[in-house]
Write a structure and sequence with these properties.
Blueprint (H helix, E strand, L loop, with lengths): L9 H24 L7 H17 L22 E4 L8 E3 L2 H15 L6 E8 L2 E8 L2 E7 L5 E4 L1 H5 L16 E10 L1 H13 L8 H9 L4 H5 L3 E11 L7 H10 L9 E4 H15 L7 E8 L2 H7 L9 E5 L4 E13 L4 E13 L2 E7 L3 H7 L6 E5 L7 E5 L24 E2 L7 E3 L9 H9 L11 H9 L6 H4 L4 H5 L6 H14 L4 H7 L7 H11 L2 H6 L2 H4 L7 H12 L1 H12 L20 E5 L7 H10 L3 E3 L8 E4 L5 H9 L2 E3 L1 H10 L2
Parallel strand pairs: 2-11, 19-20, 19-21, 21-22
Antiparallel strand pairs: 1-6, 3-9, 3-10, 4-5, 4-7, 7-8, 10-11, 12-13, 12-15, 13-14, 13-18, 15-16, 17-18
This protein binds 2-(butylsulfanyl)adenosine.
């Protein structure tokens, strides 16, 4: 989209700016308040670019309510103060139905009301309370609640929030208007923000509320501008005129002036309707896009409110009925490594039991070591625990002020707590894993099912139900035990009889005659699928040389990179695993010798170095191809190098090869060598 030309005169610029501001404000309102944009991001950006270009050319035409002012201002050294002429009060709480009924009874008594009172029900948003003042429809000041009478002046920050109008829309705007509401970060924005921070190596926020608070407390409002804040309006403070007779009428006017008013707010006649409203919101809590910590009931009629008045800290005409908290603090009693069915070891916090969201929680996952280090959770720490929906409870942060002086960082054990095998974290993986795949009881059912599966040892009739019984009754601890099973034992299992026991034993006997690739695959070595198993068998010819191979030797196998080589070497280094393999062979598991036909190894003994960019294939492909033919690929040129393959822009390796008299191949030369000798 080409940018339009600048206006020719200052007057034309002034006019165009007014048009653009109105248009951009309108789109902001649709996008950030109504959630229903009319134009694409690109079109919006084009309007913004035009506005910025004109304002740059005529800077004195910039006004405080221009959309350009939402990008933030240079940092302040401290926040000023804001005095609240109408105090920002707190709310009394109801913790159960009885508290709420008592509140309603007091309201009716004071009002001398016979029938039900009309209330407005609102979600109580879990964010930061704010007041924003408009003078003649233009935003002039925004402040936090502070102690209720004096708060901090965060005008520059609030201006950057797109759901806060900089100028009120529509008709009948009062001379002075203070709106009150809650600044939040919506759940999906929170997830995105944390993901972004994680990727950038920054500390993540424990919950949306902390994220919102942190974002508003920036001295540099340009940083606030980058945070996905949303403002929900729920009332007014000072106002130069009456806005109506009822709360819900005021909310309608606020909506018309461009504020975001929560769409779950309802007018409710009497307590039954209020209780229904509460139960319904409690049910739907997880599907709302923002965190709520309660439901607020407010007397709707303003005259009635006046008669009810205030106590020292809260209005008598409103009450907050709390929802069960999603978050609680408790102490970490221990951190326990827990071994999963695939061998992954997860650090799990053992907690002093605490009630969160209506459920008692005594364990919380710490996912993996990176996560644990990032949060720096230690035994003895006081932590925040969070439970949202059906998700597993999670530790969201440590209260470091309450850390005991002797708390030491936790580390992953070197040996599996279940079977004692080595624990290893392979390069590029997040999880630590137990290497005793064949012996570890935590992995037993999974390992045996894999061993018996069709493409592995193909033991017909050994399904999950049977394996579970065999493992539970400790009849089978390792795959080798399968071949020691006796007829009577098998026939005694649930759902087994003589016939099926015969069949299973016959299948086991048949399975002993297998192939080396199947056997390798059946061992369940991490990263070793059927193809890699095949390549290993072809390259080494038999099991012993594979078991003895170093990582350097293993990477010479096509398809085997450093991570896979590491996994294979560690698997065979584990004495428990070697023992099981010995037993399997002793039980009669066998395979025909794999012929390492010389025809497939024409490049055996030849060493290659690849440099530069190849046009027809990637370097990895070339490496695989050379290795498949028995050649070796190394990283640097030496006297031992037989061929240097030089692609585009080869660099210093080419000079070195020439110096040492190494044969240099171009891409065509390499192809000829690979193709001709195939
Ligand atoms: S009305 C005088 N309505 O809850 C009445 N408050 O404990 C003032 N809050 O500081 C509050 N959602 O930050 C009201 N729909 C809502 C609310 C709400 C959240 C917060 C607000 C206030 C605190 C009171």
């Amino acid at each position: 989209m080409a940018d339009p030309a600048l206006p020719e005169t200052e007057n034309a610029a002034r006019e165009r700016l007014a048009e653009l501001r109105e248009e951009i404000d309108g789109h902001n309102h649709r996008y950030y308040v109504l959630d229903s944009p009319l134009i694409s991001d690109a079109e919006y950006d084009a309007l913004m670019r035009e506005l910025l270009a004109i304002e740059e050319r005529w800077p004195h035409l910039v006004t405080p309510d221009s959309p350009s002012q939402r990008v933030g201002a240079p940092p302040a050294s401290a926040f000023g103060e804001v005095h609240h002429a109408v105090p920002m009060l707190s709310l009394d709480n109801a913790f159960d139905e009885q508290d709420l009924l008592d509140f309603d009874r007091r309201v009716r008594e004071r009002l001398g009301h016979q029938g039900g009172v009309r209330y407005v029900g609102e979600p109580k948003l879990d964010g930061l309370s704010l007041t924003i003042r408009y003078q003649d429809g233009v935003l002039v000041q925004a402040g936090t609640r502070g102690d209720g009478r004096t708060g901090e002046d965060i005008t520059a920050n609030v201006r950057t929030v797109r759901s806060v109008p900089l100028r009120l829309r529509g008709q009948g705007v009062p001379e002075t208007l203070e709106v009150r509401g809650e600044m939040v970060i919506r759940k999906r924005d929170f997830e995105a923000l944390n993901a972004q921070r994680l990727a950038a190596g920054l500390k993540t926020f424990a919950n949306p509320r902390n994220a919102a608070a942190g974002s508003l407390r920036q001295l540099d409002s340009r940083e606030t501008a980058r945070r996905p804040l949303t403002f929900f309006t729920f009332g007014v403070g000072v106002c130069s005129e009456s806005l109506g007779d009822s709360h819900h009428a005021i909310l309608q006017r606020l909506t018309a002036w461009g504020f975001r008013v929560n769409d779950q707010i309802r007018v409710l006649d009497g307590m039954d309707a209020c209780l229904d409203y509460y139960r319904d919101l409690l049910d739907r809590r997880d599907s709302l896009d923002y965190e709520i910590d309660g439901v607020v009931f407010k007397v709707d009629e303003l005259q009635a409110r006046e008669r009810l008045g205030f106590t020292a800290r809260a209005p008598r005409w409103a009450i907050a009925y709390k929802l069960p908290a999603r978050e609680a603090t408790t102490r970490v009693r221990d951190i326990i490594p827990s071994v999963g069915r695939t061998g992954a070891i997860t650090p799990v916090a053992d907690l002093e039991p605490v009630e969160v969201g209506g459920v008692t929680v005594s364990r919380a996952t710490l996912h993996n070591m990176d996560e644990l280090r990032r949060k720096d959770v230690r035994v003895g720490d006081t932590v925040m625990v969070r439970r949202a929906g059906d998700v597993i409870p999670e530790i969201t942060g440590v209260i470091t002020e309450r850390r005991p002086p002797d708390a030491t960082p936790w580390d992953m054990p070197k040996h599996c707590p279940v079977c004692g095998s080595e624990v290893l974290r392979l390069d590029e993986e997040a999880d630590h894993r137990c290497q005793g795949g064949l012996v570890c009881s935590a992995q037993r059912v999974g390992a045996i099912l894999h061993f018996a599966s069709r493409r592995a040892m193909d033991i017909d009739g050994l399904g999950e139900k049977i394996v579970e019984q065999l493992v539970d009754r400790e009849l089978v601890r390792t795959p080798a035990d399968l071949f020691r099973l006796e007829h009577a034992t098998v026939a005694g299992l649930e759902r087994m009889g003589d016939r099926s026991a015969d069949n299973l034993l016959a299948a086991l006997s048949r399975a002993k005659a297998t192939s080396l690739p199947r056997f390798l695959y059946a061992l369940g070595i991490r990263h070793v699928g059927e193809v890699t198993a095949q390549r290993l068998a072809e390259h080494f010819g038999d099991l012993e040389p594979i078991m003895a191979a170093s990582e350097e030797e293993l990477v010479q196998v096509p398809d085997v990179g450093p991570v896979v080589a590491q996994a294979i070497a560690h698997f065979f280094a584990e004495p428990h695993n070697r023992d099981v393999i010995r037993q399997l062979l002793a039980a009669g598991v066998r395979w025909p010798v794999v012929h390492r036909s010389p025809r497939t190894q024409p490049l055996a003994g030849k060493t290659f170095v690849l440099t530069g960019t190849l046009a027809g294939m990637s370097r990895d492909q070339a490496r695989n191809r050379i290795q498949a033919l028995g050649g070796k690929v190394t990283g640097s040129v030496s006297r031992k190098t037989d061929y240097l393959v030089a692609g585009e822009s080869p660099g210093s390796k080419l000079d070195k090869a020439r110096e040492l008299g190494v044969t240099v191949l171009d891409e065509a030369g390499m192809r000829a060598l690979l193709g001709a000798e195939d």
